[in-house]
C-alpha cells in the first residue's frame, strides 16, 4: 500500500492491477495461439504496476521472435497489450511485459552499468554520459545510480535520450 492511501484504496489498487494482469494474460494467450507459440503466462504486481511474463519450458527459441532485436518487438508487444487493457478498462495501463526473461536479464545488466557509471562519476568528479536508452532502461539505471548515493538525470530527445550520472 502506498503512503496516503487507506486500506480500502490499497485493496482497490491491487484488485485493479490484478484485473489488468488478467486482461493482459487473456490477450497474450490469444496471441500465442494465433502465432502457434508455446508459452506460459505468469502474472504479478510489482512496484504499483501489473507485471506479466511469457515463459517457456522448452529449449526452443520460438519466444525470441517476441523479443526481437534488442527488445524492439517486446516493446511493441507491450504497447499492444497495454492498449488491449485500456480497451477493456478505459484506464491507461503501466503494465510491464517480459518475454523469456529478456527484461529480467536486461535489468541486471543495466543495474550493473548504473553502478559502474556512479563509481566513475565519484572517482572522476565529472558527469558520466551513457548511450541512448529506452524509458525502461533509463529507469533501471536511474534507480541503480540512486542506490549508489548519486543523482542522475535524462537529457536529449527520443530516441537519443540518455542518462547523465552526476558526481556528488
Automatic annotation (TrEMBL):
GO molecular function: RNA binding
Basic and acidic residues bias locations: 159-168
Record domain R3H: where: 104-168
A UniProt-annotated Pfam family: R3H
Region named Disordered: 111-131, 147-168
Name listed for the protein in its UniProt record: SpoIIIJ-associated protein
Organism field: Streptomyces zagrosensis
